[in-house]
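I would love for you to help me understand the pair of lines that follows before we discuss the fold together.
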Amino acid sequence: MKTLGFAIVGCGGIALQNHLPGLALCPETRLAALCDSVPATLERARQQTGAKVVSTDYLEIVRRDDVDAVILATPNHTHKEIALAAIAAGKHVLCEKPLALNAADARAMAEAAEAADVRHMTAFTYRFVPAMRYLAHLAKRGDLGDLYHYRSCRLQDWGTRDLGWRQLRALAGSGELGDMLSHRIDFAHLLVGPMKRLVAGLRRFHAVRMGKPSELDDWVAIMAEFDCGATGVLESSKLATGRNESWRSLDLVEVNGSERSFVFSTGNWNSLQTGKLGGPGLETIPVPKPFWRWPGSLRDPHVGDPLVTFRYDQAWEFVDAIRNQRPCVPSFHDGVRVQVAMDAAMRSAESRQWVELAEVSSVRHA
Protein backbone atom coordinates (compact mmCIF):
# COMPACT_ATOMS: atom_id res chain seq x y z
CA MET A 1 0.00 0.00 0.00
CA LYS A 2 1.46 3.31 -1.10
CA THR A 3 2.09 5.92 1.58
CA LEU A 4 -0.04 8.97 0.80
CA GLY A 5 1.51 12.40 1.27
CA PHE A 6 -0.76 15.13 2.63
CA ALA A 7 -0.26 18.87 2.59
CA ILE A 8 -2.18 21.13 4.93
CA VAL A 9 -2.81 24.61 3.60
CA GLY A 10 -3.98 26.84 6.43
CA CYS A 11 -2.41 25.96 9.78
CA GLY A 12 -4.84 27.42 12.29
CA GLY A 13 -6.71 25.66 15.07
CA ILE A 14 -9.01 23.57 12.87
CA ALA A 15 -6.08 22.04 11.01
CA LEU A 16 -4.06 21.21 14.11
CA GLN A 17 -6.96 20.10 16.33
CA ASN A 18 -9.13 18.19 13.83
CA HIS A 19 -7.28 17.28 10.65
CA LEU A 20 -3.85 16.29 11.95
CA PRO A 21 -5.05 13.89 14.69
CA GLY A 22 -7.35 12.27 12.14
CA LEU A 23 -4.52 11.72 9.68
CA ALA A 24 -2.40 10.24 12.46
CA LEU A 25 -4.94 7.41 12.79
CA CYS A 26 -4.76 6.51 9.10
CA PRO A 27 -2.09 3.91 8.19
CA GLU A 28 0.40 4.67 5.44
CA THR A 29 -0.12 8.43 5.44
CA ARG A 30 2.41 11.15 6.13
CA LEU A 31 2.39 14.91 6.56
CA ALA A 32 4.39 15.98 3.51
CA ALA A 33 4.13 19.76 3.83
CA LEU A 34 2.57 22.71 5.63
CA CYS A 35 1.53 26.05 4.16
CA ASP A 36 0.19 29.25 5.66
CA SER A 37 0.33 32.83 4.42
CA VAL A 38 1.14 34.07 7.95
CA PRO A 39 4.78 33.21 8.82
CA ALA A 40 4.18 33.14 12.58
CA THR A 41 1.25 30.71 12.23
CA LEU A 42 3.32 28.55 9.92
CA GLU A 43 6.23 28.47 12.36
CA ARG A 44 3.99 27.44 15.27
CA ALA A 45 2.60 24.60 13.18
CA ARG A 46 6.09 23.54 12.11
CA GLN A 47 7.23 23.36 15.72
CA GLN A 48 4.14 21.41 16.76
CA THR A 49 4.27 18.90 13.90
CA GLY A 50 7.97 18.69 13.08
CA ALA A 51 7.13 19.11 9.39
CA LYS A 52 10.25 19.28 7.21
CA VAL A 53 8.66 21.17 4.31
CA VAL A 54 6.92 24.48 4.96
CA SER A 55 6.08 27.42 2.72
CA THR A 56 3.94 30.54 2.56
CA ASP A 57 3.35 29.87 -1.18
CA TYR A 58 0.51 27.40 -1.75
CA LEU A 59 1.45 26.94 -5.42
CA GLU A 60 4.85 25.64 -4.37
CA ILE A 61 3.17 23.15 -2.03
CA VAL A 62 0.36 21.80 -4.23
CA ARG A 63 2.75 21.17 -7.12
CA ARG A 64 5.11 18.98 -5.11
CA ASP A 65 5.48 15.40 -6.34
CA ASP A 66 5.37 14.02 -2.78
CA VAL A 67 1.96 15.60 -2.14
CA ASP A 68 -0.98 13.38 -3.11
CA ALA A 69 -3.75 15.27 -1.35
CA VAL A 70 -4.42 18.71 0.10
CA ILE A 71 -6.42 19.63 3.19
CA LEU A 72 -7.59 23.20 2.77
CA ALA A 73 -8.32 25.12 6.01
CA THR A 74 -7.88 28.73 4.94
CA PRO A 75 -10.26 31.74 5.01
CA ASN A 76 -13.31 31.23 2.80
CA HIS A 77 -12.34 33.69 0.05
CA THR A 78 -9.22 31.63 -0.78
CA HIS A 79 -10.93 28.24 -1.14
CA LYS A 80 -11.72 28.41 -4.84
CA GLU A 81 -8.31 29.68 -5.95
CA ILE A 82 -6.29 27.20 -3.92
CA ALA A 83 -8.58 24.25 -4.59
CA LEU A 84 -8.48 24.83 -8.35
CA ALA A 85 -4.68 25.02 -8.25
CA ALA A 86 -4.49 21.76 -6.30
CA ILE A 87 -6.96 20.06 -8.64
CA ALA A 88 -5.01 21.27 -11.68
CA ALA A 89 -1.94 19.62 -10.13
CA GLY A 90 -3.86 16.35 -9.83
CA LYS A 91 -4.28 16.47 -6.05
CA HIS A 92 -7.25 15.22 -4.06
CA VAL A 93 -8.83 18.01 -1.97
CA LEU A 94 -10.60 18.14 1.39
CA CYS A 95 -11.90 21.69 1.86
CA GLU A 96 -13.35 23.32 4.94
CA LYS A 97 -16.89 24.66 4.78
CA PRO A 98 -18.41 26.76 3.40
CA LEU A 99 -16.94 25.60 0.13
CA ALA A 100 -16.78 29.07 -1.46
CA LEU A 101 -18.19 32.59 -1.32
CA ASN A 102 -21.09 31.73 -3.61
CA ALA A 103 -22.72 28.81 -5.39
CA ALA A 104 -21.16 29.62 -8.77
CA ASP A 105 -17.64 29.36 -7.36
CA ALA A 106 -18.49 26.21 -5.40
CA ARG A 107 -19.91 24.62 -8.54
CA ALA A 108 -16.75 25.52 -10.48
CA MET A 109 -14.70 23.68 -7.84
CA ALA A 110 -16.90 20.58 -8.04
CA GLU A 111 -16.86 20.53 -11.83
CA ALA A 112 -13.08 20.92 -11.95
CA ALA A 113 -12.58 18.08 -9.47
CA GLU A 114 -14.90 15.79 -11.43
CA ALA A 115 -13.17 16.62 -14.71
CA ALA A 116 -9.75 15.89 -13.16
CA ASP A 117 -11.04 12.64 -11.59
CA VAL A 118 -9.70 13.54 -8.15
CA ARG A 119 -11.44 12.87 -4.85
CA HIS A 120 -13.18 15.90 -3.34
CA MET A 121 -14.68 16.37 0.10
CA THR A 122 -16.43 19.16 2.03
CA ALA A 123 -15.69 19.25 5.76
CA PHE A 124 -19.21 18.95 7.16
CA THR A 125 -17.66 17.43 10.25
CA TYR A 126 -20.84 16.96 12.29
CA ARG A 127 -21.99 14.24 9.91
CA PHE A 128 -19.49 12.04 11.71
CA VAL A 129 -21.16 12.33 15.14
CA PRO A 130 -22.36 8.77 15.90
CA ALA A 131 -25.86 9.92 16.86
CA MET A 132 -26.22 11.88 13.60
CA ARG A 133 -25.05 8.87 11.61
CA TYR A 134 -27.63 6.68 13.32
CA LEU A 135 -30.38 9.26 12.81
CA ALA A 136 -29.54 9.45 9.11
CA HIS A 137 -29.76 5.65 8.96
CA LEU A 138 -33.19 5.64 10.63
CA ALA A 139 -34.48 8.40 8.36
CA LYS A 140 -33.27 6.60 5.25
CA ARG A 141 -34.88 3.38 6.50
CA GLY A 142 -38.23 5.17 6.68
CA ASP A 143 -38.78 5.11 10.43
CA LEU A 144 -40.15 8.65 10.39
CA GLY A 145 -42.94 7.85 7.93
CA ASP A 146 -44.05 10.83 5.85
CA LEU A 147 -41.85 13.80 6.70
CA TYR A 148 -43.54 16.82 8.29
CA HIS A 149 -40.97 19.11 9.91
CA TYR A 150 -37.24 19.71 10.28
CA ARG A 151 -35.83 22.14 12.82
CA SER A 152 -32.38 22.98 14.08
CA CYS A 153 -31.14 25.39 16.71
CA ARG A 154 -27.50 26.30 17.33
CA LEU A 155 -26.94 28.81 20.13
CA GLN A 156 -23.53 29.93 21.38
CA ASP A 157 -22.22 32.79 23.49
CA TRP A 158 -19.33 34.46 21.66
CA GLY A 159 -20.03 37.94 22.98
CA THR A 160 -18.13 40.77 21.31
CA ARG A 161 -14.77 39.05 20.90
CA ASP A 162 -12.67 39.54 17.78
CA LEU A 163 -13.59 36.97 15.10
CA GLY A 164 -10.69 37.87 12.81
CA TRP A 165 -11.32 37.28 9.11
CA ARG A 166 -14.71 35.73 9.94
CA GLN A 167 -16.19 39.19 10.56
CA LEU A 168 -15.17 40.64 7.18
CA ARG A 169 -17.44 40.25 4.14
CA ALA A 170 -14.64 40.10 1.56
CA LEU A 171 -12.90 37.27 3.41
CA ALA A 172 -15.80 35.23 4.81
CA GLY A 173 -18.77 36.02 2.57
CA SER A 174 -21.21 35.51 5.43
CA GLY A 175 -21.10 35.33 9.21
CA GLU A 176 -23.11 32.91 11.33
CA LEU A 177 -24.84 31.67 8.17
CA GLY A 178 -21.68 30.15 6.71
CA ASP A 179 -19.88 29.50 9.98
CA MET A 180 -22.46 27.42 11.87
CA LEU A 181 -25.76 27.25 9.99
CA SER A 182 -24.07 25.71 6.94
CA HIS A 183 -23.66 22.49 8.96
CA ARG A 184 -27.36 22.46 9.85
CA ILE A 185 -28.39 23.10 6.23
CA ASP A 186 -26.31 20.05 5.36
CA PHE A 187 -28.14 18.10 8.08
CA ALA A 188 -31.44 19.13 6.50
CA HIS A 189 -30.34 17.87 3.09
CA LEU A 190 -29.12 14.62 4.63
CA LEU A 191 -32.26 13.92 6.65
CA VAL A 192 -35.06 15.49 4.59
CA GLY A 193 -33.75 16.25 1.10
CA PRO A 194 -33.48 19.35 -1.10
CA MET A 195 -35.09 22.65 -0.16
CA LYS A 196 -37.61 24.09 -2.62
CA ARG A 197 -37.84 27.65 -1.35
CA LEU A 198 -36.99 29.67 1.74
CA VAL A 199 -37.26 32.98 3.49
CA ALA A 200 -34.47 34.18 5.77
CA GLY A 201 -33.42 36.89 8.17
CA LEU A 202 -29.85 37.88 9.01
CA ARG A 203 -28.94 40.30 11.79
CA ARG A 204 -25.69 41.96 12.83
CA PHE A 205 -25.89 43.16 16.41
CA HIS A 206 -22.24 44.25 16.80
CA ALA A 207 -20.76 46.54 14.17
CA VAL A 208 -17.51 46.64 16.15
CA ARG A 209 -15.77 43.72 17.84
CA MET A 210 -12.81 44.49 20.07
CA GLY A 211 -12.27 47.78 18.28
CA LYS A 212 -12.42 46.24 14.78
CA PRO A 213 -15.25 46.58 12.23
CA SER A 214 -17.63 43.64 12.02
CA GLU A 215 -19.59 43.47 8.78
CA LEU A 216 -21.44 40.17 9.00
CA ASP A 217 -24.37 38.47 10.67
CA ASP A 218 -24.27 37.38 14.31
CA TRP A 219 -27.68 35.70 13.98
CA VAL A 220 -29.55 33.96 11.16
CA ALA A 221 -32.88 32.19 10.80
CA ILE A 222 -34.39 30.34 7.84
CA MET A 223 -37.90 29.09 7.24
CA ALA A 224 -37.93 26.55 4.41
CA GLU A 225 -40.14 24.31 2.32
CA PHE A 226 -38.61 21.06 1.02
CA ASP A 227 -39.21 19.26 -2.25
CA CYS A 228 -40.85 16.41 -0.31
CA GLY A 229 -43.43 18.80 1.19
CA ALA A 230 -41.89 19.06 4.66
CA THR A 231 -41.28 22.39 6.36
CA GLY A 232 -38.14 23.56 8.11
CA VAL A 233 -37.02 26.13 10.67
CA LEU A 234 -33.30 26.74 11.23
CA GLU A 235 -31.76 29.25 13.66
CA SER A 236 -28.18 29.97 14.70
CA SER A 237 -26.65 32.69 16.89
CA LYS A 238 -23.32 33.73 18.34
CA LEU A 239 -25.06 35.94 20.90
CA ALA A 240 -27.10 33.55 23.05
CA THR A 241 -25.75 34.97 26.30
CA GLY A 242 -24.90 32.35 28.89
CA ARG A 243 -25.17 29.41 26.49
CA ASN A 244 -21.39 28.80 26.44
CA GLU A 245 -19.68 27.36 23.36
CA SER A 246 -18.88 24.18 21.46
CA TRP A 247 -20.68 21.03 22.69
CA ARG A 248 -21.51 22.80 25.96
CA SER A 249 -24.00 25.03 24.13
CA LEU A 250 -27.34 24.18 22.53
CA ASP A 251 -27.01 22.25 19.27
CA LEU A 252 -30.29 20.55 18.53
CA VAL A 253 -31.89 18.92 15.48
CA GLU A 254 -35.44 17.53 15.44
CA VAL A 255 -37.30 15.74 12.65
CA ASN A 256 -41.02 15.03 12.84
CA GLY A 257 -42.79 12.46 10.67
CA SER A 258 -46.16 10.74 10.47
CA GLU A 259 -44.86 7.74 12.45
CA ARG A 260 -42.08 9.07 14.67
CA SER A 261 -40.03 12.03 15.76
CA PHE A 262 -36.31 11.99 16.44
CA VAL A 263 -34.21 14.52 18.36
CA PHE A 264 -30.43 14.77 17.98
CA SER A 265 -28.06 16.79 20.15
CA THR A 266 -24.34 16.99 19.47
CA GLY A 267 -23.67 16.81 23.20
CA ASN A 268 -25.32 13.38 23.35
CA TRP A 269 -23.07 11.61 20.90
CA ASN A 270 -24.31 8.08 21.64
CA SER A 271 -28.04 8.56 22.14
CA LEU A 272 -31.16 9.97 20.47
CA GLN A 273 -34.60 10.88 21.70
CA THR A 274 -37.63 9.48 19.92
CA GLY A 275 -41.37 9.34 20.23
CA LYS A 276 -43.97 7.42 18.20
CA LEU A 277 -47.41 8.37 16.96
CA GLY A 278 -49.81 8.43 19.91
CA GLY A 279 -47.06 7.59 22.37
CA PRO A 280 -46.54 9.01 25.88
CA GLY A 281 -43.69 11.33 24.85
CA LEU A 282 -40.02 11.21 24.04
CA GLU A 283 -37.74 8.45 25.27
CA THR A 284 -33.96 8.10 25.04
CA ILE A 285 -32.56 5.32 22.89
CA PRO A 286 -28.90 4.28 22.59
CA VAL A 287 -26.90 4.52 19.40
CA PRO A 288 -25.79 0.96 18.45
CA LYS A 289 -22.04 0.44 18.74
CA PRO A 290 -21.52 -0.17 14.98
CA PHE A 291 -22.38 3.53 14.53
CA TRP A 292 -19.85 4.74 17.10
CA ARG A 293 -17.20 5.16 14.42
CA TRP A 294 -17.09 5.49 10.64
CA PRO A 295 -16.95 2.17 8.75
CA GLY A 296 -13.35 0.91 8.71
CA SER A 297 -12.03 3.66 10.99
CA LEU A 298 -9.33 2.57 13.44
CA ARG A 299 -10.34 5.21 15.98
CA ASP A 300 -11.12 3.81 19.41
CA PRO A 301 -14.32 5.58 20.59
CA HIS A 302 -13.31 4.83 24.19
CA VAL A 303 -10.08 6.87 23.89
CA GLY A 304 -10.20 10.62 24.33
CA ASP A 305 -13.22 12.91 24.49
CA PRO A 306 -15.82 11.41 22.13
CA LEU A 307 -17.27 14.89 21.58
CA VAL A 308 -13.95 15.79 19.97
CA THR A 309 -12.58 12.56 18.54
CA PHE A 310 -15.54 11.83 16.24
CA ARG A 311 -14.06 14.51 14.00
CA TYR A 312 -11.06 12.29 13.27
CA ASP A 313 -13.23 9.91 11.25
CA GLN A 314 -13.46 12.61 8.59
CA ALA A 315 -9.81 12.06 7.67
CA TRP A 316 -10.42 8.31 7.53
CA GLU A 317 -13.25 8.80 5.04
CA PHE A 318 -11.07 11.04 2.87
CA VAL A 319 -8.14 8.62 2.87
CA ASP A 320 -10.33 5.57 2.27
CA ALA A 321 -12.06 7.26 -0.68
CA ILE A 322 -8.67 8.06 -2.21
CA ARG A 323 -7.42 4.50 -1.80
CA ASN A 324 -10.60 2.93 -3.18
CA GLN A 325 -11.14 5.54 -5.91
CA ARG A 326 -14.72 6.21 -4.83
CA PRO A 327 -16.67 9.39 -4.09
CA CYS A 328 -16.12 11.05 -0.71
CA VAL A 329 -19.00 11.53 1.71
CA PRO A 330 -19.73 14.41 1.93
CA SER A 331 -18.38 15.64 -1.40
CA PHE A 332 -18.02 19.03 -3.08
CA HIS A 333 -21.49 18.41 -4.51
CA ASP A 334 -22.88 18.51 -0.97
CA GLY A 335 -20.98 21.75 -0.45
CA VAL A 336 -22.56 23.20 -3.60
CA ARG A 337 -26.07 22.31 -2.42
CA VAL A 338 -25.47 24.06 0.89
CA GLN A 339 -24.01 27.09 -0.87
CA VAL A 340 -27.10 27.35 -3.09
CA ALA A 341 -29.26 27.49 0.05
CA MET A 342 -26.92 30.06 1.63
CA ASP A 343 -27.06 32.26 -1.48
CA ALA A 344 -30.84 32.03 -1.41
CA ALA A 345 -30.86 32.99 2.27
CA MET A 346 -28.74 36.08 1.64
CA ARG A 347 -30.92 37.07 -1.32
CA SER A 348 -34.05 36.58 0.78
CA ALA A 349 -32.69 38.63 3.67
CA GLU A 350 -31.91 41.50 1.29
CA SER A 351 -35.25 41.40 -0.55
CA ARG A 352 -37.34 40.38 2.49
CA GLN A 353 -39.11 37.86 0.26
CA TRP A 354 -39.31 34.11 -0.32
CA VAL A 355 -36.70 32.83 -2.78
CA GLU A 356 -37.00 29.75 -4.99
CA LEU A 357 -33.80 27.71 -4.81
CA ALA A 358 -34.09 26.71 -8.46
CA GLU A 359 -33.49 30.36 -9.35
CA VAL A 360 -30.25 30.42 -7.38
CA SER A 361 -29.13 26.97 -8.58
CA SER A 362 -29.42 28.05 -12.22
CA VAL A 363 -26.78 30.78 -11.80
CA ARG A 364 -23.62 29.52 -13.46
CA HIS A 365 -19.98 30.45 -13.00
CA ALA A 366 -18.92 33.23 -15.35
In short: The chain has a mean pLDDT of 96.
